[in-house]
Amino acid sequence: MKQKSSVIDCGTSSDAKIAVMSMFRYAFGRRTYVPSAIIRIIKLNAKSLDDTTLNLLNRELSEAAEEYERLYKDENQSNYGDHYDRAEWLAFHEWVKIEIAKRKKAKD
User: Fold this and answer.
1) In a 10 Å sphere around its CB, with 0-12 CB exposed, 13-18 middle and 19+ buried, how is residue 10 labelled?
2) What is the per-residue pLDDT across 12-52, written as a single tens digit (0 to 9) for each?
3) What three-state secondary structure class fits 11?
4) Taking a C-beta distance cutoff of 8 angstroms, is the pair 63, 13 a contact?
5) Where are the domains of the chain?
6) Conformational region of residue 81, where left means phi above 0, alpha means psi within -120 to 50, and beta covers everything else
7) Which of 6-15, 43-52, 83-92 has the lowest mean pLDDT?
8) What is the pTM of this model?
9) How far apart are CA 77 and CA 61, in angstroms?
10) How far are the Cα atoms of 13, 45, 78 from residue 67, in angstroms, in the given order?
């Protein structure tokens, strides 16, 4: 039976930011099974995230992409964790950029 996904009550926006950034920083670049779960949790809780948190995620993912291009020439090496995690983090980065753009458009 498929488990139902649910939103986590993060309390205040400050609590949500701390929780999300802690999860992200734990998962990003690690050689572990957890990136998929963390990305899913962050997306499910997007409404709890303020613009500052999304911009911080965007900045850190952009810096990682620049570092990858500069330092990693071997496809089996990566600052994204295992080499197969890179595609997942890049897709998440695109989602973050789209979410930022949607919010910006809604404010205009």
Assistant:
1) middle
2) 667 778 888 898 888 887 777 788 899 999 999 888 888 99
3) coil
4) no
5) 13-107
6) left
7) 6-15
8) 0.79
9) 17
10) 30, 28, 10
